[in-house]
Write a structure and sequence with these properties.
Layout: E1 5-7, E2 15-19, E3 26-27, E4 32-36, E5 48-53, E6 59-62, E7 84-85, E8 91-94, E9 97-105, E10 116-127, E11 133-136, E12 141-144, E13 150-155, E14 164-169, E15 181-186, E16 196-203, E17 214-218
Parallel strand pairs: 2-14
Antiparallel strand pairs: 1-2, 3-4, 4-15, 5-17, 6-16, 7-16, 8-9, 9-15, 9-17, 10-13, 10-14, 10-16, 11-12
Amino acid sequence: MAAGGAFFCGSAKAEVTLNLALSSPQDGLNGALFYSTDIQPTGTGVIQPFVRIQGKPTEAGYNTDGPIEFDTKDHTGQNWTHSITLSQVPIVTIGGVQYREFLLDINETDSKAGRFLSMNEFEVYLSDTNVLTGFNTTTHTFSTPGTATTNLVYDLDAGVNGDQLVRMDYSQASGSGSGDMFVYIKNSLFVGSGPYVYLYSKFGTPDASDAGFEEWATRPGPNNPPSVPLPASLWGGLTLLGALGANKIRSRRRSA
């Protein structure tokens, strides 16, 4: 198995690092797999962005049709941030197990020091409403609307490894217009609470966010893309098909 490392930042609590800058994929050991990717543009509509966030040196946000919070970019008139349903999140089979696929497109500087980015929090929820807001970063619950039913289906920091972060290297992809990471979450975790999917993520410690926006997206098309074999670097004996790298998005714009 590809080994993770650990970062120590002053007196801050150490986190287990799933270091995609060194080896891909990484196994969170709690129902998720993390893959580096460099999927390239093949035209408009290859991916469907649903949340965009931007801040320095840290940033956080989540998708909703309700009032946006933290460093989420406004969806008014642009559709950068909006609700999605579980039916819009494709299913990919890896090693005989079904996963839901999310794609992250990061935008960092190309300098030696600035090319890295740490993802410190990654959580996915299901809800019966499309307008959740009022996210409490301590309790990890939503306050609005009060009658909504919401269920946490995945937390990067839950499970056998405790506190975790994912480290990415922007220079490993081809820059703007090229994706950076796939996250695969076991489909069996998506139970209860309704059809709407919320993705909360936070970046910047110890590797700061220092340039343009980060954007989460799904790939459109049938809800059962071709199966993805397990890569030899993680489980041995199999290789990752190039199909994961065959698609990508419209070019990404840097925003101020």
